[in-house]
Every structure is written in structure tokens, then in C-alpha cells.
Design brief:
With about 120 residues, this protein is mainly beta. Helices cover about 0% and strands about 50% of the residues. It is built from no helices and eleven strands. The strands form two sheets. Strands 2, 4, 5, 6, 9, 10 and 11 form a seven-stranded mixed beta sheet that branches. A hairpin with a 5-residue loop joins strand 5 and strand 6.
């Protein structure tokens, strides 16, 4: 049974914007945290942004701070990532995740991933 479904990836020019969405269900939204990881070819999967579902408090990696914003919609069981001022180095597969503590890489559920490609 699919627990997390991502959408919104694609190809964009440098400086452009994309919005990723992740639709969960009651089980995934019972997690304490949700967020986004990304993995570029030949690199390790890294945290991009994390949000605590109950409070809405968030964390953004230094590499995306000021450009990306994570948000959640409890009523729709959706977590989104607004990505502005995209750079070629943002190119990666982006994964939605849910779990007790994503900042400590304690993940219970993964999405299937969505490709983001930023051309220079």
C-alpha cells in the first residue's frame, strides 16, 4: 500500500521555481515529522527540509535556506516544498519522508521520489 505520493517535479531553468507536494494518509500523518530528502547521482541522500506536524516548526538545510520553504496542510494530509531561485546544484531526485525524527534520519515511510532537473 502506497503511503506517500509525490508530485510536482520536472525540468526548470536556473532561477526558476517549482513546488513539490506529498500526499499522505492517516498513518503517515500520525508521524511526528515529515519532510524532504534529495539524492543527486553519486552522492548520499541528504536532508532538505523537515516540518513538525503538530507545531509547524521547520528546519531547512543551509544549502536551501532562504530559497526553499516547507509547509503542511493537516486537513489535506499534504506537505509541500516551495523551491525558488533554483540552481543547477539542486538537481536531484527528491523524496518525501515521514517518521519520528527525520532530522535524526529516523524514517518510517518513503515516497517513490520525483526528479527535479535545473538547467544552467
Amino acid at each position: 500500500q502506497v503511503q506517500l505520493v509525490e508530485s510536482g517535479g520536472g525540468l526548470v531553468q536556473a532561477g526558476g521555481s517549482l513546488r513539490l507536494s506529498c500526499a499522505g494518509n492517516g498513518r503517515t500523518f500520525s508521524s511526528r515529522t515529515m519532510g524532504w530528502f534529495r539524492q543527486a547521482p553519486g552522492k548520499e541522500r541528504e536532508i532538505v527540509a523537515v516540518i513538525t506536524l503538530s507545531s509547524g516548526s521547520s528546519y531547512h538545510a543551509d544549502s536551501v535556506k532562504g530559497r526553499f520553504t516547507i509547509s503542511r496542510d493537516i486537513a489535506r494530509n499534504t506537505v509541500s516544498l516551495q523551491m525558488n531561485s533554483l540552481k543547477p546544484e539542486d538537481t536531484a531526485v527528491y523524496y518525501c519522508a515521514a517518521g519520528p525524527s527525520l532530522s535524526q534520519r529516523i524514517v518510517a515511510y518513503w515516497g517513490q521520489g520525483t526528479q527535479v532537473t535545473v538547467s544552467s
